[in-house]
Amino acid sequence: MTSIRKIAVCGAGGTMGAGIALVAARGGFETVCFDRSADGLARSRKAAEKFLAKSVERGRMSQDDCDATLARISDETELSALTDCDLIIEAIFENLEVKQALFEELDRICKPETIFASNTSTLSITQIAGGCGREDRVVGMHFCLPAQMMKLIEMSRGLNTSDETFQTAWNWTRATGQMPVETQDKPGFILNALLVPFNNDVIRAIEAGLASAEDIDTAIRSGLGYKMGPCTLIDLIGLDTQILLGEAFYPITLDRRASVPPLLRRMVAAGKLGNKSGRGLLTGPAAVPAQTGLEFLIHQTGESRSFPAGDSFRSSASQAGPVCIHLGGGFEPDTSKTAVLVELDTECLGVHTGEDMGREGSNALGFARYRNGNDAPSNLIELVRQPGTSPEALAAARAVFEAAGFDVAVCADQPGRIVDRLVRPKYNDALRFLDEGLASAEDMDQTCRMGLGYPDGLIERVARGGLERHYDITSAIYEMTGQQGYAPARRSVVAKSRERLGT
Ligand SMILES: NC(=O)c1ccc[n+]([C@@H]2O[C@H](COP(=O)([O-])OP(=O)(O)OC[C@H]3O[C@@H](n4cnc5c(N)ncnc54)[C@H](O)[C@@H]3O)[C@@H](O)[C@H]2O)c1
């Protein structure tokens, strides 16, 4: 049940405002679309008509509902049309002074009960509400792009927001069929606080020569089951927007990972903004996987996390062949082979082979099949090369795994390879946010599933994979890189200590 009847969206001529207005009108609410730009409003109306017509075409909505939804929307360029609204959601430019000025003006003309909501991504709800005259009736409502398709709304209270305001706004989001989660009024709430540093890590990894954008996307999609690879997402968001996000977060959080990676600035300077400019991180289609591979034999020295006993890959091994695969951590150089593969755990390949960087033509490669704790191994093989690895050895190793149906991502011999290097700092963030009370584990996980398209939440996944294992992996990467993002989160240190104590 909601007491709200009439709502307004400020900035309805823009990307987010247009979608939010659709959510409100589709949910049965009289919706005033306000924007300073009449052209913007006309564009949004056209987009709404097109979107709703598609919904009818696909059988998601009746023609009557479509007509009724459009009839509930009115367009306004005068603020005075908003005086009797029960809820006003602003989605105007991301600028504190501009948002504050709008709320001050609205406070002067609106009825006292009107609730103001802000869709800000990076600003503080408390600051936006500051001085508007009704700080107790201002709430954060962060919709996801595109709002008309994404159900998640991150809801937050400013320091002065009343419980009644929060509850009324919360009930309204439920009444529209959206899925609210509660988060504190902190930079980036949940979604962007997890995403902005992660995306920057991805760009830094490319800059550090870890792997290509295509291989990073393959690894994250196949290893973690994310719907979209991070490079595809950054190209979609826009590299210029990613810079703005970093510039907004870094000064407030002083988190080095939030700061703008130099490569990002160079790419934007070169006109590579992502999809909007036709050029971004991804440069071409992924290579076509090999259908056939060379014969291979297996040497086993210890337990294999990649191919446990009974794994079907083992049954395709021969007694001999030009490729030798060492499972369980062992390695013996053999120059008579095209490729010698070493199964890796948290260590680098250099631990087994030495690091003679100038040496050309090495036939040794590392590999690991990505696996979260004791979950079934994923379909991803991370293939580790060194600077002098011969192209023949790399091609042979790739073909052995691709012919067996695995997704292969090639990376340099750097700590954590691709997936752990990128995902572990994010698990650390999520665990720290939990300690700091940013949101509940359920709301954080819901945000990941519904807002980011992950198959499961970060807390759920890191806990399932074992906090002790998280400690082992992050401390190994931390030892090798010294980077703060890998310092094991408190909860994993506790879990490891308890394991050591046998409690
Ligand atoms: N784009 C996203 O992915 C996304 C996601 C979630 C939240 N947000 C937030 O939503 C807000 C809007 O972002 P956007 O990407 O839709 O921007 P946009 O530039 O597409 O749209 C902004 C609209 O606001 C209008 N506007 C600006 N100042 C105004 C004023 N004083 N009064 C009335 N209208 C005004 C502009 O004419 C424009 O139509 C920002 O706060 C942003 O941080 C954006």
TrEMBL record:
<feature type="domain" description="3-hydroxyacyl-CoA dehydrogenase C-terminal">
    <location>
        <begin position="188"/>
        <end position="282"/>
    </location>
</feature>
<dbReference type="Pfam" id="PF02737">
    <property type="entry name" value="3HCDH_N"/>
</dbReference>
<protein>
    <submittedName>
        <fullName>3-hydroxyacyl-CoA dehydrogenase NAD-binding domain-containing protein</fullName>
    </submittedName>
</protein>
<feature type="domain" description="3-hydroxyacyl-CoA dehydrogenase NAD binding">
    <location>
        <begin position="6"/>
        <end position="185"/>
    </location>
</feature>
<dbReference type="Pfam" id="PF00725">
    <property type="entry name" value="3HCDH"/>
</dbReference>
<dbReference type="InterPro" id="IPR008927">
    <property type="entry name" value="6-PGluconate_DH-like_C_sf"/>
</dbReference>
<dbReference type="InterPro" id="IPR013328">
    <property type="entry name" value="6PGD_dom2"/>
</dbReference>
<keyword id="KW-0560">Oxidoreductase</keyword>
<dbReference type="InterPro" id="IPR036291">
    <property type="entry name" value="NAD(P)-bd_dom_sf"/>
</dbReference>
<dbReference type="InterPro" id="IPR006176">
    <property type="entry name" value="3-OHacyl-CoA_DH_NAD-bd"/>
</dbReference>
<dbReference type="InterPro" id="IPR006108">
    <property type="entry name" value="3HC_DH_C"/>
</dbReference>
<feature type="domain" description="3-hydroxyacyl-CoA dehydrogenase C-terminal">
    <location>
        <begin position="418"/>
        <end position="490"/>
    </location>
</feature>
